[in-house]
Amino acid sequence: MGIAGERKAALVTGASRGIGAEVATRFAEAGWDLTISARSREPLDELAHLLGEKFGVRVAVAVADMADAEQLDALAAAHTEAFGRLDLLVLNAGMGQKGLIAELPVRRFDKLYQVNVRSAYVLLQALLPTLRSTAEVAGAAKVVAIASITGVHPEPELAAYGATKAALISLCETFNLEESEAGVSATTISPGYVNTDLSEWTKDKIPAEEMITVGDVATMVEAVSRLSRYAVLPGVVLTRPGTNLGRA
C-alpha cells in the first residue's frame, strides 16, 4: 500500500502508560497520526479519545500481546491498513524481571526473550515493507527501540533482563547495516531507572524524583524522528547523575 496521506504516522507499542503514553502524546501534539498498542484495551481507548479530541489527529487502537506472533502480525497489518505509511516505529513494550542467575527459572528468561526481543524481530519484519515505502517517498523512516542501560553495562540481579536488551541492541545495529542505505534506520535508547511503575521495586533505594523521567526518554524519541535519512544514530545511553555512570 502506498502512502495514504500527507500527515506522518507512528506506531507505538506499550502505549497505555509510562514512556509509551508520553511518546504518543508528544507525537499527537506534533500533528502525527498514531496507532497505539498494549495488552489492555480500556486505557488505550481512553488515551486515543483524549489525543484525538485534544489534537485533532487520528489515533487507532490495536490490542496485542507481545508474546503472540499472530497478534503482532495483525497489529502490523492494522496500522498499514489504517494509515498506509509508517514514519516512526516505537518499540517500547517490554517486561522486566529481577533475579539472580542462580535462582531465576529459565521459563522466566524465555518469556523475557519473547517479549523484549522476539516481538521486535516480528514487528520489524512485518512492517519493513511499509517502512521502506515511506522512506522512498518521505525521505526517511525511523525505528526507535527502548532498550536499557543493563543491555550495555551489567547490573546485579538483572542478568536475564539485560541479556534481552543487549540482544535488542544488537538486532537494531544489524538492522541498520541492512536497511539504512534505503533510508530506514534504527536507534536504541538505553536508559537507567525511569520513574514508572516498572521501577517501583527499587524506589526505596532510589527516590522517584531522582530517576530519569518519561519526558526525558520521549524527548530523545522526538529528536531521532527529526533526523534525516543521512543521519543514523545507532544508540543512546541515558544515565543518572553520579560517580558511576554505567549503573542503572
Describe this structure in words.
This protein is globular. The chain is an alpha/beta fold and 248 residues long. Helices cover 44% and strands 15% of the residues. The mean pLDDT is 94. Strands 3-2-1-4-5-6-7 form a 7-stranded parallel β-sheet, with helices on both faces. Helix 1 (18-29) packs parallel to helix 2.
List the helices and strands and how they pair.
Layout: E1 9-13, H1 18-29, E2 33-38, H2 41-55, E3 59-63, H3 69-83, E4 88-91, H4 106-138, E5 141-146, H5 159-179, E6 184-191, H6 214-225, E7 235-238
Parallel strand pairs: 1-2, 1-4, 2-3, 4-5, 5-6, 6-7
Helix pairs in contact: 1-2, 1-6, 3-4, 4-5
Q: Classify the helix fraction into a percent range.
A: 40-55%
**Overall average pLDDT:** 94
Approximate shape: globular
Cα gyration radius (Å): 17 Å
Distance between the termini: 42 Å
**Strand-and-helix sequence, N→C?**
EHEHEHEHEHEHE
Share of β-strand residues: 15-25%
Give the spatial strand order of the biggest sheet: 3-2-1-4-5-6-7
> How is the biggest beta sheet arranged?
7 strands, parallel
Number of helices: 6
Class from helix and strand fractions = alpha/beta
Total beta strands: 7
**Unreliable stretches, pLDDT < 50, 5 or more residues?**
none
